[in-house]
């Protein structure tokens, strides 16, 4: 019995290690530079997103899995996912809902809302949706 328990424990460690290595491999493939998410009708509504600042978040927290092992995570706006146009659509297939759903940590807004108690800079819309001038002013103030 003791050998069975030890064998099962070793097998569990092997499977968990493989899963962690796969997640790390996916994170290594993530874009290194910040990307501009251009899904609003106004440039002021565009959001700069940086995968590097989200490195502690598992990829499948935001991205759905795909059956293609070469591209396990695809862009949110592909034809099969959140391609419904319109910034205020309430359809679950719209980009607005994908980014702003309040009661799930799969959305940007929902996750930031959940973490806002520990990270006060996560509250409100402005941290993500800033005009270019406001972003420059915030960067300058941060350097001082």
Question: Could you characterize what this model shows?
Answer:
The protein has 144 residues and is mainly alpha-helical. 40% of the residues lie in helices and 4% in strands. The protein has five helices and two strands. A two-stranded antiparallel sheet has the order 1-2.
Strand order of the largest sheet: 1-2
How many strand segments?
2
Largest sheet, described in full?
2 strands, antiparallel
Count of helix runs:
5
Mean of the pLDDT scores?
74
Helix content: 40-55%
The structural class is mainly alpha
Name the shape in a single word.
globular
Q: Write the element-wise H/E pattern from the N-terminal end onward.
A: HEEHHHH
If you compute it from the alpha carbons, what radius of gyration comes out, rounded to the nearest whole angstrom?
A: 19 Å
Low-confidence stretches: 15-25
Alpha carbon gap, first and last residue: 64 Å
Strand content: under 5%
Structure keywords:
mainly alpha, 5 helices, globular, 144 residues
What's this model, at a glance?
With 144 residues, the protein is mainly α. It contains 5 helices and 2 strands; from the N terminus they run αββαααα.
Layout of strands and helices, then pairs:
Layout: H1 2-29, E1 35-37, E2 47-49, H2 59-62, H3 95-100, H4 108-115, H5 132-143
Antiparallel strand pairs: 1-2
């Amino acid at each position: 019995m003791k050998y069975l328990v030890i064998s099962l424990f070793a097998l569990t460690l092997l499977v968990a290690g493989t899963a962690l290595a796969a997640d790390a491999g996916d994170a290594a493939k993530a874009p290194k530079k910040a990307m501009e998410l251009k899904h609003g009708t106004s440039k002021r509504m565009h959001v700069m997103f940086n995968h590097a600042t989200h490195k502690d978040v598992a990829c499948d927290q935001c991205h759905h899995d795909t059956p293609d092992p070469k591209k396990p995570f695809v862009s949110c706006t592909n034809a099969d996912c959140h391609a419904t146009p319109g910034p205020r659509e309430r359809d679950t297939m719209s980009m607005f809902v994908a980014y702003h759903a309040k009661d799930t940590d799969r959305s940007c807004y929902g996750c930031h809302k959940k973490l806002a108690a520990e990270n006060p800079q996560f509250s409100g819309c402005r941290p993500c949706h800033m005009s270019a001038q406001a972003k420059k002013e915030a960067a300058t103030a941060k350097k001082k």
